[in-house]
Amino acid sequence: MGNRVAHLLLLLVLCYGLTMAVGLHREEKEDWRGDSEETQTGREQEWFMLQDSKRVVKTDAGDMRVLRNYGGRIMDRPIHIGFITMEPRSLFVPQYIDSSLILFVRTGEARVGLIYEDELAERRLKIGDIYRIPAGSAFYLMNAEEGQRLHIICSIDPSESLGLGVFQSFFIGGGTYPTSILAGFELETLSTAFNVTTDEVREIMTRQQEGPIVFIDDSRAPRLSPWTKFLTLKEQDRLQHLKRLVKFQQQPSEGEEQMTWSWRKLLNSVFGQENKKKGEKAGKSPDSYNIYDRRPDFRNNYGWSIALDESDYQPLKHSGVGVYLVNLTAGSMMAPHVNPTATEFGIVLRGSGRIQIVFPNGTQAMDARVKEGDVFWVPRYFPFCQIADRSGPFEFFGFTTSARKNRPQFLVGSSSILQTLRSPELAAAFGVSEDRIDHVISAQREAVILPSASAAPPDEVEEVVAKFEKVQKVIKSVGNGMIMGFD
């Protein structure tokens, strides 16, 4: 009797475990593959494309929009992607936010001021420059050029955020729009802290109405803003005006110094150092890093690639984010590969192409055509490849969720893991002879970035086409047993 009860309990446990396993598999399938055959393809294509765009700032002088990533069970950490556009002679007013940023200057030139270890650091950024702004650090951003818009792409790491939205800005400068965080204090409190009259405090707390991005040239601004008035004053006049706002004449008490020192330096940088020579550095913040000045990590006749990690640019270590840039010639391909250390986010800078991603079970997760401005992401461990259209070069830039050195595992090509694994066991896994598998995996003579058939020398075109057809036949003969191919 006792044995029967034990066997019955064991059977119930096994049934329960089977039910849970089937349910989990079904749930994952619904999450990863869609609810039905009719809808799964469209939903899968959308899932790996960041399309939830939110405009967080919009003024006459510029705007900022953010593509939000909601994460998920296969996302090691979410990263949002931001796009900042600033008109000539405009300023993104001083603020700090609850997320760290990594800036990439796409076009134009920028001047960024940052409080770093209680020192005001100012850097001039040009096309290709990478620069990190830590969460909670006060900064401003300026497009001081006369005739060129500034376009910046940035990663937004919400790991330290308050969770109130995509990110939360705390504007230092402001008035009625945006509202300065100082406005929440009583006028008497600010009057005492600044050592000025309440009327002077009221004036600077109510004048700004043009938004977070403002013109600093009154010929462009719809009305004369306080920022414009400050910057059009002569240097000595600006300094005198600041002295009325912040007590430079006397040494503050220890408590006052802790409260006002960083604010004072930031304000003085914006309004009192306009005459600094171009390129002159201030403060001890790390320099920017220009990705276009770096020699490619890999280059052949079909393209090149660059990857920055913490050993190349030390500030990346603090964010745990890497940066990469890839350029493919017309029709070429970044070979199918796997990133075993990080999730990747890619932004198409120019050209168009296709992104193919494969699920762990060997089925296709996405085959999407992308163009300039599109943003895609690839989960860690998922096989994928990028293919340039034949109409022209395909260039994409992006961020990864690890600042460590990335060692992608290529599935096809002369340096692929199949070459390393070449053995009787590999042939047995594919169910073909050793001669056949050797012939197929050695057909591609190039590594990492592969040519299209039309890019091969004329006398090799037929040979390349024939070998690729053999590769496809072998892959299809395997079914879902191994993930390595593409159509």
TrEMBL record:
Domain Cupin type-1 residues, every copy: 48-202, 289-438
Record Gene3D superfamilies: Jelly Rolls (2.60.120.10)
Superkingdom classification of source: Eukaryota
Keywords from the UniProt entry: Signal
Signal peptide: 1-21
Matches recorded under InterPro entries: Cupin_1 (IPR006045), RmlC-like_jellyroll (IPR014710), RmlC_Cupin_sf (IPR011051), Seed_Storage-Functional (IPR050253)
Protein name: Cupin type-1 domain-containing protein
Organism in which the protein naturally occurs: Salix suchowensis
Lineage of source species: Eukaryota, Viridiplantae, Streptophyta, Embryophyta, Tracheophyta
